[in-house]
Every structure is written in C-alpha cells, then in structure tokens.
Design a protein that fits this description.
The complex is a heterodimer of chains A (261) and B (318). Chain A contains twelve helices and ten strands. By secondary structure, chain A is of the alpha/beta class. Chain A is globular, with a radius of gyration of 19 Å. Chain B has a domain of 216 residues. Helices cover 76% and strands 1% of the residues of chain B. A two-stranded antiparallel sheet of chain B has the order 1-2. Chain B is globular, with a radius of gyration of 19 Å. The chains are: A alpha/beta (261), B mainly alpha (318). At the A-B interface, α2, α3, α4, α5 and α6 of A face α8, α9, α10 and α11 of B.
Chain lengths: 261, 318
C-alpha cells in the first residue's frame, strides 16, 4: 500500500551531517508533513528524495522500486514531482505555457514533427493547451493565462507552481512550503487544494511552517531536528510530544499549544 | 506567440525581401542583400541556441567553416554535386555538434563559452594548416552550383547577385519558418523552460541534457548551411570563415538585434552587415563607430534593437 518509502536517508556536506538516518513512508491519498525548526534539514530531505542531492546513505523507494539518487526528470516520469520553497518558475514564458510545460512527458515531443509543425505535433499541442487550462482553473489563474509569468504576484506564482506540478500527473507530490508568503485567504485556498489532491489519490509530502495548516490537513507528521527524526505520528500525538516541544522552544515550556498554533 | 503571428512575421519578411530590390541603386546591392540573408541564417540558428535554450557558443564559425569547405572540397575530391555537398557539410556539422555537445554542454556560462571558443579555433587552425587539402590561409576556390547556366538555358537570365539574393532569401524564409515552428512546439517549449530554470525543467520530466544538445546540433546545422551558401556565392573561401572574429560577429548580430526573437536577430544581421558598407565613408573610424553603436544599444536597449523598439511602441499604446 505504501507508495513512497524512505529508509535511513542521510547526507553530509563536508563535515556537517545535515540529515541523518531518516525513515518514514507515505501511502496514496495520504498527507504527510515534515516539520521542524529552521535548519532542521527539511528541504535537504526533499532535495534527496527528489533527486536534486545525492544521499550519502539510505534509500528511497517509489512503489517498491529503489529510486535513490535517480535524476529528477526520471523521477518525474515515474510519477514523483515537487514544488520549491524559493519559486522555480519559467519567468519569461506565459502562465499557460508554464503549465503546458508540465505536460512535457505526456506530450512526448518529437523533434522532426516539431520542426516542420506536422499535424501530429499541432494536434498534441492543442490537446495539451486545453488540459492546461483545466489546471489553471483549479488554481484560479485562467484570467492570467496569457500573461508573462514573471508579472504575477508571489501568491499566484505559488499556485502556478502547483498547477505545473499537477500537469506532470504525479502519484507522489512534494510541496515545499506551498503557503509561505501567502495571506490567510490564499493559505486557506492552498489548504483546500491540497486536501482535494489527496482525496484524488495523490500521496502528498509537505514541508510547511504554518502550523495551523499542518495540524489541520496532515494525516501523519514527521518531526526533524538537527537532521534527525525526533518524533512522528498523528498531529495530535506530535503536538503533545515533549521532545517536539523542546525542539521548538529550546527548553520545556508550559504553553506548548501556543508554539504549535 | 500564436500560429497566426508566425505567418504574419513570415509574410512581412517576404514582402520586404520582394520590395527591397526596387530601391537598389545598382546590381551590387543584390550581393549585399544575399550576404545579409546568409548572416541572418546563422544568426537564426544562434537564436535557437542562445535565445531559446539559453546556451552560449563562441565557436559557431567552426561549423560555418565545415559547411564552406565541404562545398570547396567534396565536389573536387568526392565528385559530389555542390548542392549535395551542402547537405554533406550540414551532416558532418550535425554529427560533430552531437559528439562535442554531449560533454561540453554540461558546462555553464563562461565555461561553455570558452569550450566552444576552443572548438572554433581548432577548426580554423586545421583549415589553415592542412595546406595540402585546404590551400591554407590563402583560401581555395569553390566550384559553382551549376544552376544559373541551367536557368539561362530555360530562358531565365539572372546575374550572380540576383540569383543568390533569391536562393538565400528562400533558404532564410524556410529556416525562419522552422525556427518559429520550433518556438511554439513542445520541443521549443522544453528548450525555453530549461533556459528559465533547469531545476524546474527537470521536475516536470524534461531531459535537460537532451534538449540542450538538440538546440546545439540545430544551430550547428544552420551555421553550416550558411557557410556553404557563403562559399558557393563567393566562389572562393578562406579559413577566416571559421575564425574567432566570425563567431563573435554572429553572436553580436544576434544580441544586437534581440536574441529572444527570430525576426529581431534577422534585423541585427541586416544592421551589422550594412553598417560597415555605409561606414566605408569614414574609413579609418569604421570599427570605432561600430563599437560605439554596440555599446549604446546594450546600455539603452538591452533586449536588442527590435524587441526594445516593439516594447516601446506597445507601451505608448500605438
């Protein structure tokens, strides 16, 4: 039933052990959040799972297959894609083209058909455009479809990145702080969107600082501190875990609920 | 860009090409026009490499050299028809680009610039040093295409300038059509995506190395065909065609005109081919004026001439 399994994953940069022996698993339709203080190694963990960094130890399995350290574009073909904490948008392309680019794999471009604009290439392009519009609707960006992506607001770009990731047709989706820099309304929208995606069967791995959001939508939470997994479990169990409280506040505190929102 | 705007751009260019000769004061200008089209051809190739895929090359004259010397050597040594020699040169350039592109396109920015620079210098050195085959720095004569006498027999008398003006115009239009097709296609989109963010391109499944290589090979073929046409129309070629200055000239034309747009690059090729002709009046100061114009453009119109002008026109709501 598990679609993504991470076993003993670790990485060192020079002498620094950034992530050490982290294991957890994600099922289809499940939302698993990775939380922890700044510098805990959350994004590094994401970078290892998505093939951006080469892990020093451990393995990542996608649907039972060992995919450790595979190139990101091969992982995308196997159904694992991600968004980025610091936006990675194709700035000079239109909003629509950004999403259309997400269909790259299903479009399977052929250079000859493309150079001579053969009917097969034109037909596929038209199909993909329609599909891309549907995803833009999902993130409410249809009005900006023909605008250059670089002109969009930060919150809109966050949603655009999600739409592009969805176009890949992922089975596992890694979202790195999708609500960072978004206002309350935008956060709630992204919240709903993630819940809908999980309901459709996509396994979601989430890094997020907005604790309200994490507690509300996660099925399972993994807590990192100094690169180590210090706790995991349901939102409720994790929020009462003394180690977690200590990690967030430095020492024991009488008002843990405040720290965790 | 929509499919419609592709045809508009092509139509505008075709009309300009048709109308221009009516303003030529002498037959000499057909030669200048033909030269503009040849330069534009290699620059359109660079638009695919630099403008679409965001990769740099300072050695593309090397491919022009291969195209040019294929037309000089293949008809003599292999008994190949000059027209087929153009294809042979394009084939050799394409395969060579495939072989050297694989390792060097891993490099980024100025490292890639230096690697391609090395390739270009290598080709021009071989052409200069293999005197037995290439005639060395003095150059070598190129057999004619043989098409003009054929046309004459059919009752169509064209001067050399007129003939090459037409041939190059047609080749340029076709190659621009191909470049514009590519821009809108999935392949072109993948190239532009990796230009925008390689990291993001990978996460949507784009094999970044593959599309960089495709852009590199395509631009090499463009440069090669341009080199071949140049050799055929001049009837004579020297290793300068593969030289560093020619590579720099190509990149300058592309950047000056606007490397993001095919039409802009064509415009850049026209300006930089014409300016030296006009500036012959200033003789000694020609290079100086040229350099000064380029500095001004880069400071005030960083997107390149055509895109900057277009943006300004749109801004004023015209």
């Amino acid at each position: 039933m598990t679609i993504l399994e991470v076993k003993g994953l670790g990485i060192s940069f020079g002498g620094l052990r950034a992530v050490n022996d982290v294991s957890f698993s994600v099922k289809p339709g499940e939302i698993v959040s990775v939380i922890g203080p700044n510098g805990a190694g959350k994004t590094t963990l994401f970078n290892m799972i998505s093939g951006v960094y080469l892990p020093s130890d451990g393995e990542a399995k996608l649907d039972g297959e060992d995919v450790t350290a595979q190139a990101p574009h091969l992982l995308a073909a196997k159904g694992l894609t991600r968004t980025f904490q610091n936006l990675q948008i194709f700035q000079e392309m239109t909003v629509l083209e950004n999403v259309v680019a997400g269909f790259h794999l299903s479009e399977r471009p052929s250079i000859w058909a493309d150079l001579f604009s053969l009917p097969s290439a034109r037909r596929r392009s038209a199909e993909v455009r329609d599909k891309a519009f549907a995803f833009l609707e999902k993130v409410r960006l249809t009005n900006a479809a023909e605008e250059e992506a670089g002109n969009l607001s930060y919150g809109a770009l966050k949603r655009l990145e999600i739409a592009r990731a969805l176009a890949v047709g992922p089975r596992v989706l890694l979202l790195d702080e999708p609500a960072a820099g978004c206002n309350a309304v935008e956060t709630e929208e992204i919240d709903d969107l993630i819940a809908t995606l999980a309901q459709s069967g996509i396994a979601i791995l989430l890094v997020e600082h907005d604790m309200k959001m994490v507690m509300r939508i996660s099925n399972h939470i993994v807590v990192l501190d100094h690169g180590e997994k210090i706790a995991e479990g349901t939102p409720e169990a994790v929020s009462k875990n003394p180690d977690v409280i200590a990690a967030y506040l430095g020492t024991e505190e009488e008002e843990p609920a405040h720290a965790l929102g | 860009m929509t499919g419609k705007s592709k045809w508009i751009q092509l139509a505008v260019l075709a009309i300009i090409m048709l109308v221009l000769p009516f303003f030529f004061p002498s037959g000499y200008y057909y030669r200048v026009g033909a030269l503009i089209f040849v330069n534009a051809l290699s620059v359109v190739g660079l638009v695919i490499l630099i403008g679409y895929a965001g990769q740099i090359s300072l050695g593309h004259a090397g491919f022009a050299g291969i195209g040019a010397y294929s037309c000089a050597l293949a008809p003599v040594h292999l008994g190949l028809h000059p027209a087929l020699a153009v294809l042979l040169g394009a084939g050799i350039s394409g395969v060579l680009a495939l072989l050297i592109g694989r390792p060097i396109l891993r490099l980024k920015g100025y490292y890639l610039a230096v690697a391609t620079l090395g390739f270009g210098i290598l080709v021009s050195m071989i052409l200069s040093n293999e005197r037995g085959l290439t005639g060395g720095p003095d150059g070598i004569s190129v057999p004619g295409l043989g098409l003009r006498p054929l046309l004459r027999d059919m009752g169509l008398r064209l001067s050399g300038g007129e003939f090459w003006y037409i041939v190059n115009a047609v080749v340029l239009l076709v190659s621009i059509w191909i470049a514009l097709n590519l821009y809108q296609s999935a392949t072109g989109r993948a190239m532009r995506a990796l230009h925008g963010s390689e990291t993001a391109a990978k996460t949507v499944g784009i094999d970044v190395a593959r599309f960089k290589l495709q852009a590199f090979v395509l631009s090499a073929v463009y440069a090669s065909v341009a080199g071949s046409l140049l050799a055929l129309q001049n009837g004579f070629i020297t290793p300068d065609v593969a030289g560093f200055m020619h590579s720099v000239e190509m990149v300058t034309m592309a950047v000056l005109g606007g490397v993001g747009s095919v039409l802009g690059a064509t415009f850049g090729a026209a300006i930089l081919t014409l300016l030296p002709q006009i500036l012959t009046v200033f003789a000694d100061y020609e290079q100086l004026v040229l350099g000064f114009v380029m500095i001004l453009v880069m400071i005030f119109l960083p997107l390149g001439l055509l895109p900057s002008i277009a943006a300004r026109v749109r801004w004023r709501g015209v």
